[in-house]
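Reading group handout, session on sequence-to-structure problems. Before we discuss, look at one worked example. The prompt was deliberately terse, the way you'd type it at a terminal:

> structure Sinigrinase

The input record follows.
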Amino acid sequence: MDRRKLYVLTIFVTLSVRCGCVANYTRDDFPHDFAFGSGTSAYQWEGAYDEDGKKPSVWDTYVHSRNMENGDKACDGYHKYKEDVQLMVETGLEAFRFSISWSRLIPNGRGSVNPKGLQFYKNFILELVSHGIEPHVTLYHYDHPQQLEDEYGGWLNRRIIKDFTAYADVCFREFGKHVKFWTTINEANIFTVGGYDGGNTPPGRCSTCLSGNSSTEPYIVAHNLLLAHASASRLYKQKYKNTQGGSVGFSIFAIGFRPSTNSKDDEMAIQRFKDFFFGWMLGPLTYGDYPEGMKRIVGTRLPVFTKEESEQVKGSSDFVGVIHYLAASISNAQSQPSLPGDSAFFTDIGAISMMKNKYRMLFLPPSLTFSFHISMVLEYIKQSYGNPPVYILENGKPMKQDLQLQKKDTPRIEFLDAYIGAVLKAVR
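And the output record:
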């Protein structure tokens, strides 16, 4: 694999911002604490899936059991991280976001720390900071140890809260001297829906899968994710904050919504989508509870926070990580019968877009710029959830693999130009 492909997206971001060759802005137009960077995750980047004491994660098991493309080698970052850091330096990155593989650091999910895994992350972090690149570390990116899934069901069981907190403690203790930005859970809403409602991401559970219950499990898992985040955040504040001075955040997958029509029904459908995609996670983190509309729809299938849990979750996130790739046109669908294979989560929302006479989410064509949608996302979070600090942790434009396009990547440059401009406008 051409190593330079790893950072092509950020290369264009940096060029468009620094030289002003496309846009009417420069790096100096952004606040000094606004960071431009790139990122990846352990499974997508490290490879070395069974080397030096690492044991399987649920992601390893998921792809191997289905004979899918896998990350056994991935980008081989485990062996080539120094080359990657040099590419970051050449690109001019100010920050780099990556995740730690729980099953590499603590192979069984609890207990003994793997010394070789520990040393790898120490070496990588030192390589970053020695070149002036700020590490942003994600603790969980879809890949808890398979041992915990087999032993007690992973995120379906509250036992994982204690194990996750102990894992976070190791990370804070060992890496916190150089890491000031921690994200506990990566895009918690999509991990939950994909892994326990649709079954199309690890651990692959759903009502029509070999095992799972789409009507209850997504809500149980999300509840435990929030409690685990709050527990790890509380630990950091009590044990490490004063000496390390870092911050602990939580990330969500954010979609820019627009109603299919100006009807009242579609406007109400938009609000339900916002409750289920934004409020599901940000409601408890900001106000200590789920949105009222969501509680009314899901009913007893939605777990309830105790008073103590509510107080622990509320205010536990120092920042919100936003992962934004998509925009969707939404229409009301409450009166429509469920179609075969419809998942309970989207049936609960009762709002989904029409495509070819079927109720599905409709992703807008490239001709409709995403710049409006990231502005909407940022403004909605600001107005609805207390104006928290926000990091846009992922974005991008999917393109077909084309060697000629890689040499002249005008569509993506134009996309990022509009995107960065919209973010700057929102910041101002």
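Points for discussion. First: Residues 1-22, 335-341, 354-369 have pLDDT under 50 and may be disordered. Second: The longest strand covers residues 134-140.
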